[in-house]
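Design request, tokens follow.
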């Protein structure tokens, strides 16, 4: 698979020693303010689709026989996110990037099938989650009013996450908060980070594993977390206590915590940050603005308070006298929005929060990976880009800008924009061959 490194000025491809300029972006008016940071193309990316590491067979083994056979023969099983078994409904499978779910058969799920699955998994905790010992898969239950399980969500746990895009940030030793919607891959990322920090950077890493989702079910943690140590949490309501216990008893350099969601956990994060320990955490939300507006989680980014400005300051800022401002330093200097598994936005938390509260666009880094086809003899090419506006990337994919001489509608009015109009660029005329 070929690789292309993109930066804010130009797009380049390399094939058999040839270089060809895709187009100049130097005059493109950015759709968001972005700092342009080039980084080297890596020789290999972490693979999140490894069947051996993900142990898919262990998950399929607990399912009814016909569903197991269907999934084992499915060529898209490396894209599988979850299997849903609801009483009286068709069993369904959810895949990455699918707008909906696929039905696995034409008959409804019976109570007997649900009971058979329950016998193959561990006990449910207070958060209605269970696991399969020795794996990273998670089983979540839906109960009726009598407390009986009538539905199961069988989530696939991935052993390898895509952290190459932010590998350099780990060298700073600063705390990082990952924000994203459920199912976008936050837990997989922090699991891989725990391995990199412990095995490659030789840090003392302690994972506070509330529902055994990071280190897997059972007393022996999954090898995917590397040399990191794991503290299991007896009850979800005790997560903040175990976080403080980890600092006081085990001398960690790094603490990893998944799904920060209560005021006590937020307060524990602030306390740990003040003690000089690096934090890696996750929280639910699509973007930074969601955390700012969430009264429970807003202290993760420093908190928000209403202040009254003097007349002179209000005139200087050209705003009303009552404004919102960040009330304290953020325990997480970096915040990363995981919008898609291969499209992330990196914030310097305090700068971005201050800008958003003043109604300005924050300075961010947009990093990710895209794959385009029908290039260089219809072979897939991975595009590794940094700090390009997302709308531009979508246009680039949708209209197949590569190899065309015409200017897409979205570039109308952009001066000096050109696509392969320079015949002197080596290889530019060979793209359709």
């Amino acid at each position: 698979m070929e690789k292309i490194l993109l930066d804010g000025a130009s797009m380049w491809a390399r094939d058999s020693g040839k270089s060809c300029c895709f187009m100049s972006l130097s005059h493109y008016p950015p759709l968001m303010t972005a700092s342009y940071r080039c980084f080297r193309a890596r020789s290999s990316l972490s693979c999140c689709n490894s069947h051996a590491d993900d142990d898919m067979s262990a998950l399929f083994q607990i399912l009814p026989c016909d569903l197991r056979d269907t999934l084992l023969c499915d060529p898209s099983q490396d894209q599988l996110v979850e299997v849903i078994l609801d009483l009286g409904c068709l069993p369904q499978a959810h895949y990455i990037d699918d707008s909906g779910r696929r039905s696995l058969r034409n008959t409804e799920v019976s109570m007997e099938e649900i009971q058979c699955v329950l016998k193959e998994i561990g006990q449910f905790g207070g958060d209605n989650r269970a696991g399969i010992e020795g794996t990273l898969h998670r089983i979540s239950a839906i109960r009726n009013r009598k407390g009986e399980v009538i539905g199961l969500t069988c989530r696939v746990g991935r052993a390898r996450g895509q952290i190459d895009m932010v590998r350099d940030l780990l060298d700073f030793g600063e705390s990082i908060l990952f924000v994203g919607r459920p199912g976008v891959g936050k837990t997989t990322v922090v699991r891989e980070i725990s391995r990199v920090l412990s095995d490659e950077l030789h840090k003392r890493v302690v994972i506070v594993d509330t529902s055994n989702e990071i280190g897997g079910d059972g007393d022996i943690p999954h090898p995917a977390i590397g040399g990191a140590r794991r503290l299991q949490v007896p009850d979800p309501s005790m997560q903040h206590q175990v976080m403080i216990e980890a600092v006081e008893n085990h001398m960690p350099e790094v603490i990893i915590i998944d799904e920060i969601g209560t005021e006590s956990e937020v307060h524990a994060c602030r306390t740990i940050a003040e003690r000089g320990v690096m934090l890696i955490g996750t929280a639910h939300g699509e973007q930074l603005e969601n955390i700012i507006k969430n009264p429970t989680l807003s202290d993760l980014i420093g908190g928000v308070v209403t202040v009254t400005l003097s007349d002179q300051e209000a005139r200087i800022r050209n705003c009303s006298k009552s404004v919102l401002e960040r009330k304290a330093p953020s325990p997480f200097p970096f915040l990363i929005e995981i919008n898609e598994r291969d499209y992330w936005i990196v914030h310097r938390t305090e700068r971005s929060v201050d800008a958003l509260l003043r109604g300005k666009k924050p300075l961010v880094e947009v990093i990710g990976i895209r794959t385009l086809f029908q290039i260089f003899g219809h072979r897939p090419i991975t595009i590794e880009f940094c700090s390009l506006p997302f709308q531009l990337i979508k246009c680039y994919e949708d209209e197949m800008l590569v190899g065309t001489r015409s200017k897409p509608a979205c570039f109308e009015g952009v001066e000096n924009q050109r696509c392969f109009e320079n015949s002197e660029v080596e290889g530019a005329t060979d793209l359709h061959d």
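Comment from the thread starter after seeing the answer: thanks! The two ends are 18 Å apart (CA to CA).
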